[in-house]
Fold each of these.
Amino acid sequence: MAVLTNSETTASETIAATSEKKHYLDEARMCLEHYKFLIILALAYAFDQMDLFTFSFVAPALTKHWGVSMEWIGIVNSCTFVGMLFGCWFGGWLSDVIGRRKAFLFSVVFFSTFSILNGVAPNKELFLVFRTLTGFGILSMVVVAMVYITEILPAASRGKWQAISLATGLLSVPLIGQIAEKIVPSSPNGWRYIFFIGGTGFIIFLLALSWLKESPRWLITKGRYAEAETVIQRFMTGVKVDIKNEASIPAAGSVTKKEAGTVEALKEIFSHKYAQKTSVLIIMVCCITVGYFMFFAWMPTLLNEFGFSLDDALWMSALVSFGSPIGNYLAAAFTDKGGRKIPIVIYSVLVGILTIIFGTLKIPMVIVGIGFFIRVLMDGVFVVMWSYLAESYPTHIRNSGTGFIYSTGRLLTAVAMVVVPMIYKGFGYATLFSIIGVMFLLVAVTTGLWGEKTAGRSLDEI
């Protein structure tokens, strides 16, 4: 963080003696600028969710037209997760170095370009490369977005708007399913057109060029106070902003922060000051992410293996999936309660118990009912976790720390996708779901005992 100039320091000291410091962004009321910002972020989440599911709709066509094996499809999925892993790291680091806005714009252009290249790939080898790089760009963008929302929106409602943005993005999943159903079978190249949809992410880029403003918190860490004041004023309609009253500006003579490189950021999040917080977050992110994908990525296959017909397994899974956007919208009502910590504990306890019960069920409609409720709760705790993670570190390492920890969940998920069949064959259906349930109970215990309350507080005080 840069030091104030002499003139700025003198003015700051004078005003500080007579005025109470303010947290302008935390205390702001929602205005048109906030809503424009949220539209861009919701669109970003929409493309993220579409990309996660696009390949599942395209894979059967590739099997038919390219003659690829199921093993190759598994390799593509695994490589996509690896791309996401590195995208988390890169996006977090980049946005701490060049700013949230530039990192977001770069990520949008990157994933949009490679999504189009997926559609024009002449062979399976290049397709694999392009698919991996698309995953890289998508998760780079998402990590920037989840922190961006936390830094821009008011303290009292930032979790709510994070949930609403993600829930709105999830509406793209049934949309891409309907489009794929009509386009993929239409011609031998029908699958290619689905990937071209990802290229429309350039619309986000064009909107963001004019609507998206740099995070004032990041600008302040770089000593760019005049720019920060201009941006804050756009979000504080009817209030005269004086940046010298902003609480996040360091006091004269305070120790300034160094540039947050990757190594420096990792050293800091694992330092004595943040060790407990980092440990809680890693357990939370890994257990929730791995448990979520173990449950829903394998649900149709596990139901089929358990004895249900393929048709029954698919329709049961399809009905359960409708709980996803509902879960995120409902979470918007609870995420800002209890300091973020309490909703995570309650959600995780309920998911843990119900998932263990789920593994013992045999009646289809009961499976659908309990599965639907679990989906609502799992998606709810997932989005609360996003806000909690993004709030937990200071501005100069917020994205680097968030990106690293979020990536650990993706890395372990890639491993879990290989381990699930082993657990099922070695220990059975009920044991597999019990393991998932125990992971969520571990989240509840860890967060309840050692987690910190963050919701409603200024980011400068956390």
Amino acid sequence: MDILISGASVAGPALALWLNRYGHRTTIVERAPALREGGYSVDFRGDAHMSVLRKMGVLPDIERAQTHMGSMWNVNEAGKKLVAMPADLFAGDVEILRGDLARILHDATSSHTEYVFGDSIASIAQDADGVTVTFERGPERRFDLVVGADGLHSTVRALAFGPEREHTSYLGLYCAVFTTDNYLGLDYTGHAYSTPGKMVSLYSARRNTEAKAVFWFGSPPLDYDRHDLDRQRELLAEAYEGVGWEAPELLRRMRHAEDFYFDSISQVRLDSWSRGRVVLVGDAACCASPLSGMGTGLAVVSAYVLAGELAAAGGDHRAAFAAYEREVRGYAAGCQESAVGVSKWMVPESRLMAWFMNQNYKLLPYLPWKGLMAKSVRKTASAISLKDYGVTRPAGPAPRRRPSDRAS
């Protein structure tokens, strides 16, 4: 089949890799002009995540690019270290920058997947035999299936399922991330400073050659243009006005960051993940939010199952989509549930709560439930029994060239 995938971050290329191996033709369309290299660290943990990465053949590359991060330190306004958060509580079995992961998945699929950057789907028209897709820039094309792997703000979901506001649930936080110099000289570690309703952190990346600045803050829902980065920078500066530690310097550096990212922390909840020949995967279907620590693992697991069920159903998309949802929905619900309530302790709303959490962090290495916390997260990440769908061939056919390529 000819299958169009919207989104070139994680879920889209992961799905394309499997579809190529089952002999399908894949095209990935991505609104950005090139791969997005920025973003925060993401991790994989537990048997389900790791087994899929091994089968994909990308685990060695991920391990070579992993962050090797140590403990994250909570600091006071003067930068004095107060409490260390052990890496095993948040880094999983392997941790990698989202941009590095996207590059690995792109390189693993680029020889058999057609990538179309700088464009986006404008309309989808389904009929009994396929889907006619128009694009914002490119010519109209025809596909057998369309997959939305385009994240929290999925264009495919909006076109096929309705407005975003009907399917998203805001968890009360906003997050901003950008890359800057490792000017604090952090050595495979990070520092985090909290005030009521806010937390800003800086951690080293790419073998200490750079650093990631991450801002979190609680707020009622904000009204802004998702594509207006200048306004988003202003919102962050307003939220952090008067906050100490390194916040003023990081806000100054934010003005020049090329990979600035700002978004709400939200979840996606849908009654169904498919409409006819259109199906959703990853955050577009069931965003758990970064608070869960499960979103990236959920994306690669979902991609594996969706492609496998299409193969098992012999291309019958109706049967495959239904089976895919039966296999993954309960797992996704567990991943989403793990994020609910996390904001309360991650960004405490009061000084008393912040003090209470710091006392708990200090005692954590000596308390019996430290191991229980790590086991609970791993249990959630592993709470799915994956089928062995088999692979009919090591790679799919060469990608279909674009009309403009044929004309030239």
Amino acid sequence: MNDRFPPSRPGRRSVLAMLALTPVAGALAACATGGARQSTTAGTPTGAANAGNPFGVSSGAPLEVVVFDGGYGQEYIKVPVDLYRGKHAAAKITQSATQQIQQSLQPRFVAGDPPDVVNNSGSNAIDYGALVGDKALLSLTPLLTAPSWSDPAVTVGDTLRPGVVQVGTHDGQFVVLNYSYGAYGAWYSTSLFEEKGWTYPQTWDDYLGLCDKMATAGIAPWTYPGQFPYYMFWWLASLIYKAAGPEVIDKINKLEPNAWTDEQAVAALRAFEAIPANGWVLKGSSGLNHTDAQMQFLNGKAGFVPGGSWLENEMGDSVPKGFDMAICRAPSIGKDDVKPFGSLCAKAGEPYVIPRSAANTAGGLEFLRAMLSTEGAENFIAKAGTLSSNRNAKLPKDAKHGLVSIDAALKEAGDNVFGITVDTRDSRLWKDIANLMGRFMNGDIKADQLAKQAQSLTDKARG
């Protein structure tokens, strides 16, 4: 999954070929650079295009799909394979999985014979900067205007959740379909709140009052993974989004001047400054990793913990029965907030691409269309325990409490959803600003210092 582990910083166009010559890629890549097919031209459909076959797939053309063997497993891909086979029975479909995407597939990209569909995910994903710079990815724009698999009266684009196209757009081209959809922020236990008679507040003053009640009850209001302080990014950005609006978040994402130091953005950070200033962060949090911090939360030592959609599944049997965790919406800072309480940080993840030099690009587009069918998306939710980018897919009846809360929060948020893309734009900057947030949580720096230093780092990264 790419939800938490951003790819490395984008490289120059030559990076793709150069990396394929490294020892991890092996002798195959070395041979591939010596006169092998280097075409980046999309495969030509040979079948008849019609409403049921919008990309003109040749029914007998073989299709190869490679899936990242990560936290979502491989079970979810079986339904789209069956759907594709149902329409193109003569096609031989080869589906495999690996955790070594770069090592296995980068030589094939260079040789010009990549798979037709690639789930380019995980810590060993192929660098997107290299893929985009080499123009190695097929534009997925035709997918957006094609009739959806489950309802031909609706286009595929109309079935997508907010931000899916934006996150998958590089250099002005929609080239990455992110299949999962997650919410980010912080978590709390609804059963604990019911036991204590607490109500989750919508205003910041009431939120501080709740934190005081937690501390009085012997529960630290907050813990966080000090070893990975970027977890705080999503929550603090949520406060900024509500107080300052999407324009400021866009400036942060685009590494623009005066983004972090915007007056309303700093005001949001100053509001949260009360948490460490009052000693409301669990002692020792600075040394915790993500699962340690989450265990402190599950054990009732802290009322809130930052994290994304994966948290509930990640902790598995460690989640106490009846804990009933739910995603938090950041409280409104004041009456001048630009966005409503229901706003939410959310983003598509789990990227899929179609190589331009693949033999069956029409089949690749058709396979993505099958993945985004209602059947494929609902199967993904059931198997992976997270939402799909298809906004029409429903939850299974046995969906966990946290997932139900995310689905409800997204419905309430509507279009008031934003994402953070600094992680994919500049991973070093993401890490450096996250370290500042760790110091902020420890009380070592104040809000104004965080804003000024984050902007200084941004300006340096922009060059």
